[in-house]
Specification:
There is one protein chain. By secondary structure, the protein is α+β, with helices and mostly antiparallel strands. It has 3 domains: 80 residues, Integrase, DNA-binding domain (Double Stranded RNA Binding Domain); 76 residues, DNA polymerase, domain 1, CATH 1.10.150; 182 residues, hpI Integrase, Chain A. Helices cover 46% and strands 10% of the residues. The chain has 15 helices and 8 strands. The chain has a 5-stranded mixed sheet, with helices on one face. A 3-stranded antiparallel sheet has the order 6-7-8. A hairpin with a 4-residue loop joins strand 6 and strand 7. Helix 8 packs antiparallel against helix 10, helix 8 packs across helix 12 and helix 13 crosses helix 15. The longest helix is centred in the middle third of the chain and has 20 residues. The radius of gyration is 28 Å and the shape is elongated. About 4% of the residues have low confidence.
Length: 385
């Protein structure tokens, strides 16, 4: 198998074949000249360099053999001459929203329907992980090596995997909208294996978080944590909760399918303590249709800063996240002897089977679920005091 670095000769370039795994780049050992072999067999000369802003850029020098090796080397020397004079040799491209990787990602963040929390995370990754490395490259000039190097440079395994998945989503979206010609993530997989999280809070840890971690926090923050522990709700389900979801007479809470991760409507019987939490939060929402309104948006989308402070004050030895409260609820329901299918319905785990069956099961085991949640509510009261 030929090395990716060798002395360029006409016969050698003519003999290069496309790789079945996707496009491949080769580099001339005698110069900074490169040639890219696409999946379809197109051979394109190029040069990689850093522009005046210190960003990595790539300039295409034409397709071989229409551009000969001698002509490509001539263009290479012209490019190096301009670089030596402090000029950016890359010709100005037509200004479109996607003529750079940064533009492509901004287009995705603008056009793709995303939850506010997801958009915030994606924007953070774009600015801190992606733009500094490949932001100024044209999307069609980015290859698998660029992506691999970027992901490999991220020390945290989970963050590396999430960044890779985000990059792949953006390029897939660009391909669907005919903004890019290829996806450089093709043939690549996440670098790190991940195990499913099993973290949940023990009885002592729950007591510590509620007595130390939540000490001094506002009643609104406490309500968010209370609902997560009591009902096993996801953060976005709590923060986007609307007045219309609550049925005081039925003492129930309905999470509509558009707000549910599983895209199914979930109706929960509220224990007395749960109704008390919600009624108290209603009095603080000042007439807003949302129980957790925000001065800058319709409702809160994150509690990042309080979370950091709460974890710090609690001082638990093992790291934990807000989402672990959902697993804590499910685990302790099992500890209390709640049957598995009842506990699963409480936290909204989906089941297989006909769609009609799932619809009717929205109200299945209503009394059993209410009884289970009352039992769990009493247990929380004993733990927290």
């Amino acid at each position: 198998m030929k090395s990716n670095n060798f002395k360029f000769k006409v016969r050698t370039l003519e003999s290069l074949k496309p790789s079945p795994s996707g496009q491949t780049d080769y580099y001339d050992t005698d110069s900074k000249l490169g040639i890219r072999i696409s999946y379809g067999g197109t051979k394109t000369f190029f040069i990689r360099y850093r522009n005046q802003k210190g960003k990595v850029a790539r300039q295409s020098l034409g397709n071989f053999p229409f551009v000969s090796l001698a002509d490509a080397r001539g263009k290479l020397y012209e490019t190096l001459s301009k670089l030596g004079k402090g000029e950016d040799p890359k010709p100005e491209k037509e200004k479109t929203t996607t003529n750079t990787v940064e533009g492509l990602f901004e287009y995705y963040l603008k056009e793709k329907k995303l939850r506010p929390s997801t958009r915030k995370t994606d924007l953070r990754r774009s600015k801190t992980r992606i733009y500094p490395e490949i932001g100024q490259l044209h999307p069609d000039d980015v290859d698998r090596d660029d992506i691999f190097r970027l992901i490999e440079s991220i020390d945290a395994p989970v963050e590396a995997n999430r960044t890779f998945e985000f990059i792949r989503r953006v390029w897939n979206f660009g391909a669907e909208r005919r903004k890019v010609k290829h996806n450089p993530c093709f043939g690549l997989k996440p670098l790190h294996d991940e195990e499913s999280r099993e973290r949940y809070l023990s009885i002592l840890e729950i007591k510590t978080v509620w007595t130390k971690g939540l000490a001094g926090e506002t009643s609104t923050i406490r309500a968010i944590y209370d609902l997560a522990l009591l009902l096993g709700m996801r953060m976005n389900e709590i923060l986007s909760m609307e007045e219309s979801w609550i049925d005081s007479n039925e003492r129930s809470l309905t999470i509509p399918k558009h707000q549910s991760k599983t895209k199914t409507t979930l109706t929960l019987p509220l224990p007395k303590y749960g109704m008390k939490i919600i009624d108290n939060q209603r009095s603080l929402s000042l007439g807003s249709p949302f129980l957790f309104p925000s001065p800058t948006a319709k409702h809160r989308t994150t509690i990042d800063k309080p979370q950091i402070q709460i974890r710090k004050k609690a001082g638990l030895q093992e790291h934990w996240t807000f989402h672990d409260l959902r697993r804590t609820c499910r685990t302790h329901l099992a500890r209390l002897g709640i049957q598995e299918h009842i506990a699963d319905r409480i936290v909204g785990h989906t089941e297989g089977g006909p769609k009609s069956r799932k619809t009717y099961q929205r109200w299945d085991f209503w009394d059993e679920r209410r009884e289970a949640l009352e039992k769990w509510s009493s247990e929380i009261d004993k733990i927290v005091g």
